[in-house]
Fold each of these.
Amino acid sequence: MSDGSQSGRDRLVWSGVAEARRLGVACVLLFLVPSPAEAAAVEDDGRLLAGLGVDAICVQPLAAASANGGWDGSAVAALAARLPAVVLVLDPAAVAGGGGDPAALGRRAGVAVHAVDASGPRQPDRLSVAYVRERLLAGDVAAAAETLGCPHRVAGVVVHGEGRGSGLGFPTANLALAEHSVVPGDGIYAGWFTVADRSWSDGDMAGGVRYPAAISISRNPTFAGRRRTVEPYVLDVSANLYGQPVTTDFVERVRVPERFDSIEELIATMRKDVENVRLILGAARESRRLG
């Protein structure tokens, strides 16, 4: 599906992740393997990509594409039948190898086909899975989003925490994270909070709606905490979120965590954090509108 290089493959992956996020569907990465023996290597790729927007990996024999390695009408139709898809993201070289036009192939198969140039101008190290993980662990979620084509997302379920946020006037949602989550480095982040269940509603909130949030990732140094937590504070709304599957999208780090000598100093800083989050997300929203 790509030009065979790691950077080319990763460019296709990130394009698929961004398109799936835009459509609100799962992103499934398809590997074509020439033999069952090579399928084992896919497991390593799965571990690396888990938590970076790829929801599942599908392994198919190479015969899923046409004999010359390209994607022709019959190959695309066969793939669409096996893997019910909204959009297929393919390397244009592979489509051309099958003698097909992406849009025409999609129309015949009843699925949209996007051809993504796997050899674009960005440097390979800025495309790789390792680069994205490194930036996330360093707290540079903005750089990771530039490569991914969308903000990094972490999914989890809201569980009971220690209740400190409510006592400070900033009630947070304590998250039990999904397996293989790639959690950004410690910090206070500007991001978006969404309840996954679109049929849910409570208080001021509704499922499937994206709300601005200040997201804390730390061990709560002011309280000498030992357990690292991910706690979004959703701005301007309230609801009973316990037990709800949610997602948090990370836009930018506001600051790194620090220990405060007084609760008053902590609260004053948290108020500044919230204002900074509003500014960052307002700018991001405006940038998307103009773009």
Amino acid sequence: MPMPMEYRQASVDFDRFILDARELAGLQTTNQAYTMVQAVLQTFRRRLDLEEAIVFADVLPPVLRAIFVAEWDLEEPKSPFSGRIAMTREVQAFRPDHNLSPDSAIVDVAAALRRNIDEAKLDRVLARLPAGAADFWRA
């Protein structure tokens, strides 16, 4: 079987995504965008159990999938979906000395994600996840 294109093109696809995230958030560097993306993914991940997270990870491109599951503390308690402001503050509290995530961080990452994956597939997966998941990824 040949190597799947999603793996062959993983770096190119991630570069396109991270540039979109940087642009949408009005950040200066892709390093700043990476921290924002990592924070948004971890904030979302805290609201899923392991099975739900695997279902969600399967819709992500390879590099984002790796970021989503990296450094996962499986002992961390599951958090409820709360208001956008509270979850944005959680994003901004991630690595605070290096985090310049704007108040629009979740929306910006959601918009970048939707630009770079099959939105219909994402929406089908989000419909299977707990209440609040689809709203989290609404751009």
Amino acid sequence: MGQDVDLARPSADDTLGRLAADRDLLGRAGTAQRVAEVLRDRIAEGALPPGTRLSEQALGAALGVSRNTLREAFRTLVDGRLVVHEMNRGVFVRMLDPDDVSDIYAVRRALEGTGLRAAATAAPERVAALHAAVAGGEAAADAGDWPEVGTADLRFHRALVALAGSPRLDEYMTRLIAELRLAFLAMPSARALHEPFLRRNRRIADLLAAGDTAGAAEVLERYLDDACEMICTAMRMDGA
């Protein structure tokens, strides 16, 4: 697994404090599914970075849930490829490698390409969501808020898939985005990752608005190729 970040150590107090505050999000039921969602969100935002050992004792105390509930949540996260269980060592936030990233982007091409091809017949509110995501990313860039640019970028790609009007595709994309954020953490900064692609989001949206699906598909294909290569290169430089 490489370097381990142990949640039982004092340096993890801030993260555990945030997780303790997440108790309210669990509601009265405190179900394993909701616990998994909370942990997925914290992994996605980088609060639980790749290589972190997820201590049952520390997390159970922070979230106020039983070990059985936590173990069920871990199984959900293992199925979602966000954590791994190592025999006699514990559960760790997954560390991706370039092969993982290449596979993620292959799935992205399938999902986003399907949505793009459905743009001409998509519901107006779905098209509006796509353009709103582009505008949100541009506004965040103007404000210098690069983490928000990244969030808007993911909204754009989620909206692109949503043009197909398929709940199952939307669900697959939601799961993929959580895994994708692990890959994003390989980049030195949010700006380095997202700034090169802002104009391409606008270009794709404008081409779809003009009815040029083929042109938008060409831009999207190059976009995903370049993003994949950027992340894989950063990983290789970091020794992944």
